[in-house]
Amino acid sequence: MSTSSIKLSLAEYSAELMVYFERHKLIEIITRLMVEIGLVRPTNPQHWIATNIRRIADEFYHKCLEASYMANKIDYFKLPRHFHHRIIIFGRSGSGRKTQALSIAKRFNLVYIDAENLIYTTFFRNDITAQILHKAFMADVAKDKSAALSKVIQQRLLQMDALRQGWVLINFPRNVEEFTEIFEKFKIPPNKVIYLQCPEIMAMRRLVTKPDLGCPQNNCKYMEHEMLYFSQNEEAVNAYLARRHETIYIDSTPCFEAVRTSLWTKMERLPYVMGYKR
């Protein structure tokens, strides 16, 4: 086994372990425990920890769940210093996904991943993944295309830079099946979905005023196709995302700076809770 393979395996293991810590809020609970024991200074710290750790964990879980349901901030909540954001930005074309994703990537030093560009470059590779992608798109079967796309995306998310820095992803997932796949079957799932909500009329106005209008992926026919696909899947995707703690909703109709401010505030102050709402 080569040195690079060993390093990648260790990075993948570390990332999976961090997902486990995030899911169960272990770092935050231990930090809170250390703060309280530092204030109380019990004569028998082992007995104090055994007596109080359940209370501290229950209090923190309760506050996190309440904040997630009510979209409220926790007074003493602060993300761990080396927290790895793994973010999906979802919304219709023209909602500002790319603009906000690039801004987030710069702000939090994340790897920016555009699924469309990734798929395009994969097509020109000479490996088994490219062959599977070619075959799926030639057959034009939606289920096979989603499976091939998921494989390409997961391979990219398991590369060293994404594992060590975290990532922000756009243009995938696009339907309920793909969202279910990335949340429940990926080794390193996202810990936040940012849903940029923008009316179709506003989004179309932005798209038709872009300076590169007329390019292969920025013409009226392509825009109409993208809007139609989003509209066909919007209700089902919205119903799915509304059931997950990872989802935050952002009104993306204001200017870029206003949307960015709202987005950064929620990312840094709302607790990260993973899984389905009960």
Structure description:
InterPro entries: Adenylat/UMP-CMP_kin, P-loop_NTPase. Pfam families: ADK. This is Adenylate kinase 8. The protein has helices spanning 3-24, 26-40, 45-70, 97-108, 115-123, 128-139, 142-157, 160-165, 176-184, 200-208, 220-241, 256-269, and strands spanning 86-90, 111-114, 167-170, 192-197, 247-251. The chain has 278 residues and is of the alpha/beta class. It has a five-stranded parallel sheet with strand order 2-3-1-4-5. The protein is globular.
CATH homology group of the largest domain: P-loop containing nucleotide triphosphate hydrolases
Mean pLDDT: 87
Structural class, by secondary structure, is alpha/beta
The fraction of residues assigned to DSSP E strands is 5-15%
Instruction: Report the span from N to C terminus.
Output: 44 Å
Give the class-level CATH name of the largest domain.
Alpha Beta
Strand order of the biggest β-sheet: 2-3-1-4-5
How many helices does DSSP assign? 12
Helix content: 55-70%
Reported for the largest beta sheet, the result is: 5 strands, parallel
Which runs of at least 5 residues are low in confidence (pLDDT < 50)? none
Number of DSSP E strands? 5
Radius of gyration: 21 Å
CATH fold-level name of the largest domain: Rossmann fold
Overall 3D form: globular
> Helices and strands, in N-to-C order?
HHHEHEHHHHEHEHHEH
